[in-house]
């Protein structure tokens, strides 16, 4: 089964919950990227792993020509409602269906680490980027800098340890990993940013829905059952309860602004 089919099923389980409870938390990252890229009505861009389309919606205000691909049909359904005139395709990051040097900018937020091969996915993104064009990689920061890792780790402990190289939230977060692969595929890192993207949940229901729509929790629920996963989420999130049913988690994301050389 292709990575697209595996990840597409996992991330299509609760698309409305993703769009409501998690996607808005990435706005600080999207805003920082828009400050550091060149976009206008003469530019074209591809969001590789566009999800439910929030970043593309923000880019549309620049006048740039926008397109997106994602593995999850459920998320793309929401993106298509937001951007009915935009080309949005169900595709695999390791097989991008566009010609060489098609875009001035390619972005991948919280997406490349779920490819079967990060290097192959990044090489495909480089291929469709124009020479001296920009490619943006947005990934989770170090696990110890992300409160959500406590919950994701607790859920992961319900399953057997995955083999090395398995796609997942922190698969690329190790220091130097992204930098090394960028060199191999012909990218020059122009800037690296660390962006705080807090997660705020206003009830235990929001907390549960937010995590249960993510690929790692969906995968665990298929093996041990949703009830066991929900219990693990609530228990591991307890240190982040601020008051009543309000939970606050500090999460940092690494953003690499690169140039194709």
Helices and strands, with pairings:
Elements: H1 3-10, H2 15-22, H3 27-36, E1 44-48, H4 54-60, E2 65-70, H5 73-82, E3 87-90, E4 103-109, H6 118-127, E5 129-140, H7 148-156, H8 177-185, E6 187-196, E7 199-201, H9 204-212, H10 215-224, H11 226-237, E8 241-243, E9 246-249, E10 252-260
Helix pairs in contact: 2-9, 6-8, 7-11, 9-11, 10-11
Q: What class, by secondary structure content? A: alpha/beta
Question: Tally of extended strands?
Answer: 10
Count of discrete alpha- or pi-helical segments spanning 4 or more residues: 11
Q: Which runs of at least 5 residues are low in confidence (pLDDT < 50)?
A: none
Total tally of structural domains:
1
Cα radius of gyration in angstroms: 18 Å
CATH class: Alpha Beta
User: What is the oligomeric state here?
Assistant: single chain
Taking all residues together, what is the mean pLDDT?
Answer: 96
What can you see in these coordinates?
- The chain has 11 helices and 10 strands.
- The strands form 2 sheets. Strands 3-2-1-4-5-10-6 form a 7-stranded mixed β-sheet, sandwiched between helices. Strands 7-9-8 form a 3-stranded antiparallel β-sheet, with helices on one face.
- By secondary structure, the chain is of the alpha/beta class.
- The protein is 39% helix and 24% strand.
- The mean pLDDT is 96.
- The protein has helices at 3-10, 15-22, 27-36, 54-60, 73-82, 118-127, 148-156, 177-185, 204-212, 215-224, 226-237, and strands at 44-48, 65-70, 87-90, 103-109, 129-140, 187-196, 199-201, 241-243, 246-249, 252-260.
- The chain starts with a helix and ends with a strand.
- The radius of gyration is 18 Å and the shape is globular.
- It has a single domain, classed as Vaccinia Virus protein VP39 (Rossmann fold, 3-Layer(aba) Sandwich).
